Amino acid sequence: MALENRLTGYVRNRGDAFVEIVVEGKEENVKAFLKDLRRKKPPLARIHDVKTKFLEGKNEFDGFSILKSSGEAAFSGSVIPPDVSICEACLRELRDLKDKRHDYFFITCTDCGPRYTIIEGLPYDRPSTTMKQFRMCPFCQREYADPANRRFHAQTVACPVCGPEASLADREGRVVRSKDPIREAGKLLEEGSVLAIKGYGGFHVATATTKDEPIVRLRAVKHRSQKPLAIMARDLETIRSFAQVSQKEAELLTSYVKPIVLLKKSSDCYLSDLIAPGLHNVGVMLPYTGLHCMLFDKVREPAFVMTSANPPNEPIVTDNDEAVRKLGSVVDYFLFHDRLIAQRCDDSVVRVHGKDVSFVRRSRGYAPEPIRLEKAAGKCVLALGGELNSTSCVLLGDKAFISQHVGDVENLETLRFLKSASQHLLRLTNCKPDVIACDLHPKFTTTKLAKDWSDELGVPLVRVQHHYAHGVALMAEHGLDEIVAIVCDGYGYGLNGEAWGGEVLYCNGQGEFRRVGHLEPQPMVGGDLATRYPVRMAAGILSKAISVEEWLRSNNSHLPRGEQEVDVILQQLKKGSFPLTSSCGRVLDAVSAVLGICHERTYEGEPAMRLEAVAANGKDVLKLQPKVKDDVVGTTELVHRVFERRKVDTASDLAFSAQQCLVEGLAQVAADEAKRLGVDVVGFSGGVAYNEHITYGMRRFVEENKLRFAVHKSVPAGDGGVSFGQAIAAA
Ligand SMILES: [Zn+2]
Ligand SMILES: [Zn+2]
Ligand SMILES: [Zn+2]
Question: Which of 383, 533, 565, 657 could form a disulfide with 726 if both were Cys (CB 3.0 to 4.6 A apart)?
Answer without folding.
Answer: 383
